[in-house]
Amino acid sequence: MRRWLLAASLVLLATGPAAAHKPSDAYLRLAIDPGATPHGSLDVALRDLDLVVGLDGNGDGAITWRELKARHLALAAYVQSRLVLDTPGGPCELRPVEHLVDTHTDGAYAVLRFVAECPTSPGRLTLRYGLLFDVDPMHRGLLTVSRAGAVTTAVLSPDRPEIALEASEARSAEFGPFFVLGLEHIAFGFDHLLFLLVLLLPAGYFRLPGGAWLPVTSWSRAVAEIVKVLSAFTVAHGVSLAAATTGMVDLPARLVESAIAATIVLAALDNVRPCLPRKRWLIAFGFGLIHGLGFASALGPLDLPPLDLATALLGFNLGIEAVQVAVALCFLAAAYSLRTLGLPARGLLPVGSAGALALACFWFVDRAFAGALTPF
Known about the structure:
Blueprint: H1 2-15, E1 25-32, E2 39-45, H2 46-52, H3 65-70, H4 72-82, E3 83-87, E4 90-91, E5 93-104, E6 107-117, E7 124-129, E8 140-147, E9 150-156, E10 162-166, H5 175-187, H6 190-200, E11 205-207, E12 213-215, H7 219-245, H8 253-272, H9 280-295, H10 306-341, H11 348-369
Parallel strand pairs: 1-8
Antiparallel strand pairs: 1-2, 2-6, 3-4, 3-7, 5-6, 7-10, 8-9, 11-12
């Protein structure tokens, strides 16, 4: 036990206060109706705006409404410099009409409502988006355009900062960009990946009735266990993601993030001292329902029609699944190599679990008991 605790301490010191939150997203909505002035709204997380505008005036780590209000002009100027709506006759002037605050599942967002005063009729528009790309290359702008009853969606990134919006165009949600968005959210969702690895660690072992782990004699058994764990986790987080995105479930981000850290704590502890059901796929399914809520903040604010939402959910889920399969294959290859080379893989389970336990405990305390970012 002392060796495990030492290994856990070394892992925690090596990782430090590792971040394990979702990538940065902003939500841009445009309404372009015939005979009406184009208008829209932009939701940007306060934690992101603080990086570029400096919202926390007194540096106490808490952004208040008074501090946000004092920076309204700076916020508007920043958006106007990074968000351009162009017509063949010249750029539109984006004029702010209202500043609000909204709470999404991952925290507080500043909401800027605006109208676009264009020099000519907006038959063909070009949107250029450049918010936060210079400070966070992983930032994404999730765009929804409503035009004459049709909805267009897009994911704007440093590689795709511009989109042309034709008057006659009526595109549904695109599968590809949401697939990539799913890839990015799981690839940088270190807590989700750590939970998956903790579940996979015992895949090359089987547990005796007394709780001890012994190496499997057949790799087919290990592969079958990995398939069951991945399938259960995928189905579970897909169900809860759909429920949260459609508004059937709505829980505070602080509660969800803390619960995700707690699932890692319990799964890692179970590897060292049995405390959960022996069927790992059942653990993966139960805890996967919690992890799915952690992904919901990416798609929930889009407010898409049912068919477009289904396309976005499918692409996003398959992107997540692609990374999970890649991680599982890498893990299986590493475990097989250790066994083939005759290296002592027996210590991987307790040492790896102890390290994950220490890091997850840090995340849990940080998320559950740290002060709220925006005490409005």
